[in-house]
Input
Amino acid sequence: MKNRSEKAVIIEQVKDYASRASFAVVTDFKGMSVEELTGLRVALRAAGGEYHVVKNTLARIALDSTGHKSVIPSLKDNCAIALGFNDPVGVAKALTEYAKTQPKLEIRQGSLDGKGLTPAQVGDLAKLPSKEQLLAQALATMNAVPTNFVSLMANMIRPLLYALKAIEEKKAA
Output
């Protein structure tokens, strides 16, 4: 059993991670092996997230002073917290994809910028395009406007140029 100072350090670490995270998901991992949990951690790290197994009482204390209070009621039995720092969609995708291949992983509840999410809403979030895809779509849309304008102007001038070329050829003949 850990002493008070060790528990305080764990609480502060979880509080720091959770306060920096925009996305938090409580999952049930009962029956998963260490290798399976390591695979999940690797997938989440690649998506810009982390996965922490913490005692429920310590996690409750740590999360109480962050924006992810809504997940506290689901902290019971065997559970862990997945945190997303940059792109919540990427973390949600990593969790849902891993849950498809590993039925022992169950999403209990999520929190996005302090708003509680059901497991179905976390799944819906995973279906959205990633941050990079959304930025690329916005950039393509913004780029289309000047490109279309240039094409429109060229199409307006082109008939005039054809007429002038025809007049030039007629006078040359």
